[in-house]
Prior knowledge:
The chain is α+β, with helices and mostly antiparallel strands. About 45% of the residues lie in helices and about 20% in strands. The chain is built from 18 helices and 23 strands.
Amino acid sequence: MAVSVSYARQLHREQRSTKRDEFIATVESMKSVSQNYLDSERGYAENWSAYITKSGMNLPQALEFLRKINTNSSRFAHIVDMDTLQAWSAYYPAGQEEIDTYSKFIDNATDYAQRMNSSMREIFDGTGAKFRVVGKYRLNENLSNAVSVGARVTLRIGDGSKDYLLLRAIPTDVLQKSWMFPAEYPSAEVGIITRAGEYVVQSPSMRSENFLDYIRVYNFQDDYNKMYDFAEELDRCEIGVLHYKDFRGEDCLWYFSSFGEDSKLDIVGFIPEAELIPENSAWVLVLIVCGCLMVLIVLDGVHLLWVNRQLREAARLARQASQAKTNFLSAMSHDIRTPMNAVLSMTAIAQRNLDDPAYVAQCLNKASNAGRQLLTLINDVLDISKIESGKFVLTPTDVSLPELISGLLEIITPQVQEKGQRLTYDVPEFASPQVSADPIRLNQIYINLLTNAVKYTPPGGSIHISFREEPLDESHVHLIFRISDTGIGMSPEFQKQMYQSFARAVSTQVNRTQGSGLGLAIVRQMVELMDGTIDCQSQVNQGTTFTVGLSLPVARQPDTCAGEPGSPDVDVSGLHLLVAEDNDMNWEIVQILLAECGDSCDRAKNGRVCLDVISSVPPGTYDAIFMDVQMPEMTGLEATRKIRTLPAEKNGNIPIVAMTADAFAEDVQACLASGMNGHIAKPVDVSKLRQYLQKIKNHTL
């Protein structure tokens, strides 16, 4: 029994030591979080300062730039004249920016004012520690306590210039929100102090004007010698563990740690000693010994309960998966059958009215529209599947923003006019008109939001589109797209789930509007893949505003060239082509499309036939090959690789363009890697087909 008690006491001491070490490690991690956070905030200030200085801005221009670039409403940007401590805040509108936050420190009347002035001067002069924080002090903007980091900035004044201090002010409660103790430390608190004991971030229990006074009042009373010894230890040591009482009179463990040798800042954490004492630890061994027999008795029963619980959880997950599958099939059954019914019905009606060409054309136009709707749905489902499986790949290329926006307006304007809506737009002269992005996915984001606005805005309503660019640095630009409508809006409840696949609001107005519920899910996934942001503001029967922000690399300016590829006015006739296609219907479609362009073609029913034909005819017999990928006997990829091994006199360098339903980015890359010169996705876009025919005729493919 004595051995058990001795062991329990030793275990008690070890557990207390472990909890103390864990508490200290937690405070250190909070210090690292705070230091990294303030370092990142200082990086913002330095980047802004460098850009303002390099751009040669004057004070009004710098404040206007800061108003635009400082998108976080809980942080504030200040510019301070270090000669007079006169200051201006970008938070206020033009002409009202001047604030008196710092001018009170000019006379150095108090120790506090001297230290504030000294900290600002060290940042301005670039002396002292790199990790330098100004604070704490009260902000004009929201009357909250704040700390600041900053950098020196040069502003243009007339024909000359002058250096100022640019500060990024951060409310202290923002720092405190990043601090969280584990549940086993319910009374633990943390704060940040200067070496002089002034609070930078004050915890709720530190009820005094100065940390040194706090320790003196609740521990030394009027014995100032002990307080001076404590202040000397705090100033001399980088880290330390102290044992003092808090304001409740409880014995506490205090741990302090410096942010750096020259930073003059410490993080201080404390916890009541009672919370470091393991509860009932002396009985651990007794409980173990007494419980062993019971454990042996009930082990089989516990294991059986665990097995049953696992089986119930597996059954629950299986039911959930089955319900998800049922929901998916239900949604797809309706959304696929609806346009398919239109295609089949309109085609049948057209066949019965062949003697009325105008009516036939009208039916075929409706069938074509339904087919495009069905293709969009299929592409959306495939996109969602690719994204959720982690296989979706973006393909960045140079994109002209003016051309992109012009294309969007061409698509959306007829839809708006058809519904009798009013469309307005605000498009600036872009300083960086060329960016690097995936044009297909960029269009997909904007078109989904635009078509939703048209769908859910009643006739007579209005839609407004705006684009804005904000330079980030020399190589990147922040592109902001905003679309507002006066449509039916969304309830707060639906907004919580609107980005889920197949999510649609339940209302009479929505039910009257066709849609799969995939558009917003795809938009958000695409935006996140591009490291962008999306925000929604909506009220029922008031309208909706979506804002998409994307940070995109600036691309080089394109060389100007004559002619527009794919234009119907460009002559692409006179070509003789070999088409590798195993499907009879697809072959007939390609043959007709090429004939309409004035070109002739021969067919190879699979990759092996294509290889045999091309290797047996003289060069020049065929101008190019249109190659399907998924074919029997030999795929298009394999046939292309074998053709590329042929010598030039056996047509080894003939242009080859994929014409396939494999349309994902990795499929395009696989085609190009096999030796093909281009890719056309099925269904075939006639404009893109003509582009390739033009390149083939001009020998530029």
